[in-house]
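Thread: quick sanity check before group meeting

JM: Hey all, I'm pulling together slides for Thursday and realized we never actually wrote out the predicted structure for the chain we discussed last week. Dropping the sequence here so it's in one place. If anyone has concerns about the input, flag it before I start.
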Amino acid sequence: MNMSRNLKDGLLPKLRVRYERRNREGKTRMLDELCEDHGYERK
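JM (edit): ok, ran it. Output follows.
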């Protein structure tokens, strides 16, 4: 599935900042939530 322009432009910059501050476990949780909410896969 391709990312929508809205997700790329609006949400991802905010998520990148939050992602950088988290430890490994937090990053995993954050990515799992993003994939679940938007229908993406980790691979």
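AS: nice. The chain has one domain: 5-38. Helices lie at 5-21, 24-38.
JM: adding both to the slides.
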